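Thread: quick sanity check before group meeting

JM: Hey all, I'm pulling together slides for Thursday and realized we never actually wrote out the predicted structure for the chain we discussed last week. Dropping the sequence here so it's in one place. If anyone has concerns about the input, flag it before I start.
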Amino acid sequence: MEEIRKQYIRYLGAMVPLEEVISFDRFSEVVILTETEILEEVSKFYVRMSKQVTKERTEIYQKALGVAPKSIKIDKICNRWGSCNTRKEITYNYLIVTLPMELIDYIVVHELCHIYHMNHDRSFWRKVGSIMPDYKKRMKILNGGE
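JM (edit): ok, ran it. Output follows.
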């Protein structure tokens, strides 16, 4: 268990001790968790918290935009942070909660704006900018700039 106390994961843009996010109460002190078991527990934590955070942030921004997604899902997609289909179903990457809140908010606004515009044309970006004037800065940070 001592080794676990020295490990950290990224959560909301910060590094937090692993022991703060995984409940070790159900594990005996003498049991040594394998790396696979630790990764599984971290994955469950990310899925659970991604559901909670994206739901909260979506509720805030959908009011401002006057739209509501049909559903919000969390999935282990690996090539994007989020997507919105023509049925108004939004899916977020389960690792979204590793990002700082300002980037999570950008992703939420981006996907909600796809309910209006299913592409990235000028009208789409105007809609994003109406809610988040600094979206270009946030997008740049998300894409590895700054």
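AS: nice. Helices lie at 18-21, 35-65, 101-113, 122-131, 135-142. The radius of gyration is 17 Å.
JM: adding both to the slides.
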